[in-house]
Amino acid sequence: MTTLEERMSQVVLYMSMSLDGFIAGPDDRPGQELGRGGGRLFNWLDDRMSDGPSGQVYREAMATGAVISGRRTFELAGRWQGDHHDGVPIFVLTHHIDEADVPPGSAKFVTDVEDCVAQARAAAGDSPIMVHGASAAQALLRAGLVDEMEIHLVQVLLGGGRRLFDDLDDRIELDLIRRLDARDVTHLRYRVLYS
Length: 195
Fold this sequence. Notes:
This protein is α/β, with parallel strands linked by helices. The protein has an eight-stranded mixed beta sheet, sandwiched between helices.
């Protein structure tokens, strides 16, 4: 017999990251969304349609039933034109909602971390939930709401930019549950262990 927690959809952080911990190069902004040199973190997507490890990981990501994103990521991505993938609901974690700013497509702004995850779980059903963005990841980790992390570790040192794990308050233990080596990337899947 499974518990309610086991039936709830998993909240999974999916992020490409350099070996020195950056998810974007320096000066990430509109027109240079991945920062200087940050596009290098996504070369592995050239193999996303393959039968190899990168194709497997990409298909898993695209099978998620909802997306939680930080506001900055959402804006830099051009709001994904309201559709991240397959029309799944997008929940954008933000500090403030301007009533006049209506997000496109399936996107919705949410200010409370726990409410955001609850809405995403309700929308995703039994499918996993994809998390994007450093701020959203940090907020969910601080709240103990990330179940797993899929880190696409790219063999490059960017030397600067936006770090994924800069603002965490406490130590968080991780359990490596899968490692897939592919061309230009190592896909590392961790279970997050909260004490």
